[in-house]
Amino acid sequence: MEVDSIDIHLHSVDTYPEWPRNRLSLLFKRPQCGSFDGCQRYTNLEWILKLSPSNENSLCDIKSHFIRIGDWNCHYLDEGQGHPVIMLHGNPSWSFMYRKIVRHLRSGFRVIVPDHIGCGLSDKPGSGEYPYTLEARISDFEEFIDSLNLKEPFSLMVHDWGGMIGFGYATRYPDRIARLIVCNTAAFHLPKGKSLHWTLRYIMNSRLISALIHHLNLFARVASHVGCRMNPMPNQVRRLYLEPYRKMKDRLSILRFIQDIPIYRDHPTYPVVSRIQRGLKKLRRKPMLICWGERDFIFDRDFLIQWTRRFPGAAVQRFTRGGHYIVEDACDVIGPLVKNFLNAPIRDSS
Predict the structure, then answer these.
(1) Do 296 and 182 meet the contact criterion of CB atoms below 8 Å apart?
(2) What is the pTM of this model?
(3) C-alpha neighbours within 13 Å on the C-beta side of residue 17
(4) Is the pLDDT of residue 150 over 70?
(5) Nearest Cα to 114, choosing from 82, 137, 148, 144?
(6) What is the CATH number of domain 72-343?
(7) What integer pLDDT is reported at residue 331 of this predicted model?
(8) pLDDT score at 32
(9) Is the previous residue joined to 131 through a cis bond, with omega within 30 degrees of 0?
(10) CA 99 to CA 55: how far, in whole Å?
């Protein structure tokens, strides 16, 4: 199976003389937001590549929204009507990753995709201005969900760090969850006998690599090259993954996510993960779809085995050649899979 590459036409600034003379401008429809200060600056975003409105693969048909979460402006996508489906990205991606899944679902579902604080088009607080911890992100997500005033349980789709954040919420409020879609992530400690992959351990212990991540965007650049194994990202799509993090001041979240991995028991986030792990039994009877790229060298088959042991009733779609960014790598297969899964009647598992 090969996913069609995305042909995004980039234009010079001279093509649109009324726009600011920078190499980026609007990607989404005009943002919808409340009256909070600073919203206007998002109508001329610095970081978004110019796309041809006539290009079927542009994002001009997806509306951008903002909401206040704590002291920060949170960006999110909100498309369609019907049963709510909320999707959480990981590190170092953003809501852009789910664009094709949004299109697959929005004709029959309300699809909502937030950018975590510090990621994508959400505000990017400086060091000392925001905790950048798993506990803080779960609280942010809880506040975000409360602001939506949903009238029914929602389905949750997660990838990478989105798994810890999403399951952190779901284990607190299992009655608010209808279904779960899991893609190359974890909601538990490292499998017994397994060590953190040497690349992440090296990053956490090396000031040089940490500096390269912060100053040169090394982590996001490497991830965009190795994350798709079946269908490597076209250059234009790779640039869109990287654009929200092109300035050094915008990359703090990428580094803080890595530093928040609790590999030792005295790490502040360790008990948070322990609590999530213990709470997974509350979700055991929820319908679950697992879509897994088996050539992910971080979330490898050992993590998949843990998911299937904890959720033996889950439907599993393995992509033997798929990489970490499986939502991007196999989006033309995952989109219909997710749609069929959400449309299937829920069987009584009591």
Answers:
(1) no
(2) 0.86
(3) 0
(4) yes
(5) 144
(6) 3.40.50.1820
(7) 94
(8) 52
(9) no
(10) 14
Query: Tell me: the pLDDT tens digits for 285-308?
Result: 999 999 999 999 999 999 999 999
pLDDT at 268: 96
**Overall average pLDDT of the 237-265 stretch:** 93
Residue 62 Rama label (left phi>0; alpha psi -120 to 50; beta): beta
Specify the amino acid at residue 64: S
The model's pLDDT over 39-86, given as tens digits with 9 standing for 90+, comes to: 433 333 434 544 433 344 456 678 889 999 999 999 999 999 999 999
Amino acid of residue 171: T
Query: What band does 270 get if pLDDT is binned at 50, 70 and 90?
Result: very high
SS3 assignment for the chain: CCCCCCCCCCCCHHHCCCCCCCCECCCCEEEECCCCCCHHHHHHCCCCECCCCCCCCCCCCCEEEEEEECCEEEEEEEECCCEEEEEECCCCCCHHHHHHHHHHHCCCEEEEEECCCCCCCCCCCCECCECCCHHHHHHHHHHHHHHHCCCCCEEEEEEEHHHHHHHHHHHHCHHHEEEEEEEEECCCCCCCCCCCCHHHHHHHHCHHHHHHHHHHCHHHHHHHHHCCCCCCCCHHHHHHHHHHHCCHHHCHHHHHHHHCCCCCCCCCCHHHHHHHHHHHHHHCCCCEEEEEECCCCCCCHHHHHHHHHHCCCCEEEEECCCCCCHHHHCHHHHHHHHHHHHHCCCCCCC
Q: Dihedral (C-alpha) 319, 321, 324, 326: value to the nearest 10 degrees?
A: -50
CB 30 within 8 A of CB 6: no
Question: Confidence band (pLDDT; 50, 70, 90) for 348?
Answer: low
| Residue 59, pLDDT score | 65
CB 120 within 8 A of CB 246: no
Q: Is a pLDDT exceeding 70 seen at residue 17?
A: no
> How distant, in Å, are the alpha carbons of 66, 117, 221, 248, 314 from that of 126?
19, 11, 21, 11, 40
Residues 6+ apart with CB under 8 A from 42: 31, 33, 64, 66, 73, 75, 121
